[in-house]
Write a structure and sequence with these properties.
Blueprint: E1 11-16, H1 21-32, E2 42-43, E3 48-51, H2 56-66, E4 71-74, H3 87-116, H4 121-150, H5 157-170, H6 174-205, E5 213-217, E6 220-224, E7 234-237, E8 247-251, E9 254-257, H7 259-262, E10 268-270, E11 275-276, E12 281-282, E13 287-291, H8 299-309, H9 316-346, H10 351-363, H11 368-387, E14 390-392, H12 395-402, E15 404-410, H13 411-415, E16 416-427, H14 433-443, H15 450-462, E17 473-477, E18 481-486, E19 489-494, H16 496-501, E20 517-523, E21 526-537, H17 541-550, E22 554-558, H18 563-573, E23 577-579, H19 584-597, E24 602-607, H20 613-618, E25 621-624, H21 631-636, E26 639-641, H22 648-682, H23 688-707, H24 725-732
Parallel strand pairs: 15-22, 15-24, 22-23, 24-25, 25-26
Antiparallel strand pairs: 1-3, 1-4, 2-3, 5-6, 5-7, 7-13, 8-11, 8-13, 9-10, 9-12, 14-26, 16-21, 17-18, 18-19, 19-20, 20-21
Helix pairs in contact: 1-2, 3-4, 3-6, 4-5, 4-6, 5-6, 5-10, 6-11, 6-23, 9-10, 9-11, 10-22, 10-23, 11-22, 11-23, 12-22, 14-15, 22-23
């Protein structure tokens, strides 16, 4: 039997040095094709990559073949959210700016001299000054081009820009050659600034990472790093300080600002025994908190990891553009060569004129505008969503949200509050209300189910001081109820089905439909009565369903409750379909059926992320509600709402649609401008000035357009205003 291969865990590395988006795509492609490294994604916006530690030396060699001077630096585990840039970048950016300013001054002087006194020594001086300006801004590009040629990297922006400008100098178009190299450098500088702004906006989002904790040590309070605090120790949080670790309040009361985690600005009141999470801000009172999780497992660290690492899951659009870019540049280079050779061979003509047209086409052959604007758009969409308390685990899930056609909801805890109350006790003959409630409470003594909790709370309020620890045996029958042994008697508590399978008849069972959740009780084979349990509908559930219906979505509710309760909730919320009396495995069956029926589009399942893990995993998009502090929700789902509010779903869909809209705007704009300028250049109607705009100008505009996504505010949008609502409705029909 062959030994099992253990997959080495990848860790995060930062890429230090200067490289372009197209080079990033090449690095990513070569790393992914290398055995032992496997599928790899480089986050160009954050300049990070995940690699197996044993293959870092090999990865460094591959990267240096593409871009010399780029180094892999491990991101320290204890500082996972360290700054996304490094000090060397700021110095390099400053130096680039100084070179650009110097070249601009020389270009202006040289251009005036050459144009006005072209035929005498002043014109020659002007040409020399122009050449000096060219060297100042183009030296690094020329050097990189030579290095890349020696490594076989021909279809590279440095080579193409060097070839185009050196060719322009050769045909005595020196001012245009300098202008192209100068504007290329300006464009690169502005692109870098724009990408850095986006990067720093994500860094600002991650700044709610606490920097220290006030550790209570006997009578002293010490300021330590959050990573040093252990479970069970106590920390002190003063007004205005960030809560550094998850824990439970043991002393004090206050209001906490949860906006960094949930996007909600209204402070929440907390008291002794309440749970607080890392990343919240204490606003009023002093709190003493007992730590329940180490920092690496805290809510804030999970959120930071999700936001930073979401780029490892690529969307189909991103993959398509990366593949397209591989063929775009060689195709344009071949076209440029054809424009130069074919007319000369067939018709003859002016060699310099056709060479100039070919060189103009070369200037716009770099696909950087496409390669960077798409991932940067998704990067902004994921970051913008997280600012509103919506965690999306990858660009593929963000894109899938735009294709939703069916939304399936769990009922309890998702559309309803999951806060149950015993509203009626109906004993059978021979039992009193008090006896029936006690029997049910003792049978449910060890169950964590919300209905069991409500029964115990009701009993505890009416019989204070009585404990529930004398149950001899307790067996949970999945999806049906409890079988327990108490005082030598067998007690069944649960659905009607549980009692009926035991041969126990329930008088008037059909008349109970729609009154609430019914819990039936039997003792030693005899019917003892039933409890009626109510569950309140969440305040924003109706609004959420209304918005989804307006978007043309098919809304479905799945529940284990009886058909009467399910029908009442569905009618109250205007849910279009519902399926009741479902066991956990029945929900899986129905979700599979709904996926088969929804051939065009995706199916989302929205649940609490604790009991619905199989269904969340099976759905095209698994959405967990109320992930604040819930490890199960964050682990099981593709999208996590940090607040327990269904209305976050329409917000997430709007963000996803706006992101996709902006991305396709960039793709369409970049391709159309580039193709237009190529056609104009073929017919001699475009010069290098327009070509450099089609390259660097379009790239810059695409980046600036992508940056709009992170500031997108869903609260200003109604479904009627959504650009794709009509299309969704048409597809649904």
């Amino acid at each position: 039997m062959p030994a099992q291969v253990v997959q080495e865990e990848k860790i995060k590395y930062r890429l230090e040095g200067d490289f372009c988006p197209n080079c990033s795509a090449k690095m990513e492609r070569m790393l992914s094709a290398t055995e032992g490294i496997g599928e790899t994604t480089i986050n160009y916006a954050a300049k990070t990559v995940f690699l197996p530690p044993s293959r870092v030396a090999q990865a460094q060699t591959i990267i240096e073949k593409i871009e010399e001077g780029v180094r892999l630096v491990p991101v320290p585990t204890e500082k996972k959210t360290a700054v996304l840039s490094n000090p060397g970048e700021a110095k390099e950016t400053q130096q680039r700016l100084m070179r650009i300013i110097s070249a601009c001054v020389l270009f202006a002087i040289g251009l005036i001299l050459e144009l006005r006194w072209k035929s005498d020594w002043r014109g020659a001086l002007g040409a020399f000054i122009l050449l000096a300006a060219y060297v100042i801004v183009g030296f690094k590009v020329l050097l990189k081009a030579v290095r890349n040629i020696s490594k076989g990297q021909i279809f590279d922006e440095n080579f193409l820009m060097a070839l185009a400008t050196v060719g322009a100098i050769a045909i005595r178009a020196l001012p245009e050659a300098v202008a192209v190299m100068l504007f290329y450098s300006v464009g690169e500088y502005l692109e870098e600034r724009a990408v850095n702004r986006s990067r720093h906006s994500i860094q600002a989002l991650l700044n709610f990472r606490p920097e220290y904790a006030n550790l209570v040590n006997q009578l002293d309070v010490m300021k330590v790093a959050p990573e040093e605090v252990q479970v069970g120790q106590q920390i002190l949080i003063r007004p205005g300080e960030k809560i550094p670790l998850d824990g439970q309040i043991v002393n004090g009361s206050s209001h906490v600002d949860t906006s960094a985690l949930t996007g909600e600005s209204v402070p929440r009141k907390v008291e002794v025994e309440d749970t607080v999470l890392a990343g919240m801000i204490n606003t009023t009172g002093v709190l003493t908190v007992r730590v329940t999780k180490v920092f690496a497992e805290s809510s804030v660290q999970k959120i930071l990891d999700l936001v930073e690492n979401a780029s490892t899951h690529k969307a189909r659009t991103e993959t398509f553009i990366t593949t397209f870019a591989r063929y775009y540049t060689p195709a344009v280079v071949v076209a440029a060569l054809g424009i130069f050779l074919v007319p000369l061979l067939l018709w003859g003509g002016n060699l310099q004129e056709w060479l100039y047209r070919a060189l103009t086409i070369l200037v716009i052959s770099c696909p950087c505008a496409l390669v960077i604007s798409v991932p940067l758009g998704y990067f902004g969409g994921i970051g913008g969503a997280s600012r509103q308390g919506i965690l999306i685990k990858g660009a593929n899930y963000l894109e899938a949200l735009t294709d939703l056609r069916t939304v399936v909801f769990d009922k309890t805890g998702t559309l309803t509050e999951g806060v149950f109350q015993v509203i009626e006790i109906t004993p059978a003959q021979g039992y009193s209300k008090k006896e029936l409630l006690e029997i049910a409470a003792r049978a449910e003594a060890h169950s964590p189910h919300p209905i069991a909790v409500s029964i115990r709370e009701k009993y505890g309020n009416e019989a204070k001081g009585n404990n529930l620890t004398d149950i001899l045996s307790h067996e949970e029958i999945s999806g049906k109820g409890i079988r327990a042994l108490w005082n030598g008697k067998t007690v069944l508590v649960g659905k009607a089905e549980l009692l009926e399978e035991a041969g126990i008849s329930i008088p008037g069972v059909n008349s109970h439909q729609g009154l609430g959740t019914m819990v039936y009780i039997s003792v030693d084979g005899g019917y003892a009565g039933h409890l009626t349990i109510s569950d309140r509908v969440k305040t924003d559930s109706r609004e959420t369903i209304d918005q989804l219906n307006q978007m043309g979505m098919r809304t479905v509710m799945l529940t284990g409750d009886n058909s009467g309760v399910a029908k009442a909730v569905a009618e109250e919320l205007a849910v279009r379909e519902y399926y009741s009396d479902l066991m956990p495995e029945d929900k899986v069956f129905w979700l599979k059926s709904l996926r088969q029926e929804t051939r065009q589009g995706k199916v989302a399942f929205v649940g609490d992320g604790i009991n619905d893990a199989p269904v969340l995993t099976l759905a095209d998009v698994g959405v967990a509600m109320g992930g604040l502090g819930s490890d199960a929700a964050i682990e099981a789902a593709d999208v996590v709402f940090m607040e327990d509010r269904p209305s976050k779903l329409p917000e997430a869909i709007h963000i996803a649609r706006f992101t996709k809209k902006v991305i396709w705007q960039n793709i369409g704009f970049a391709l159309s401008i580039k193709l237009l300028v190529i056609l104009l250049a073929v017919f001699g109607l475009a010069n290098m000035w327009s070509a450099i705009f089609a390259d660097e100008g379009v790239a810059l505009l695409a980046i600036l357009n992508a940056m709009r996504i992170r500031k997108y505010n869903t609260r200003k949008i109604s479904p009627a205003e959504d650009f794709s609502t009509r299309a969704v409705k048409a597809a649904a029909r």
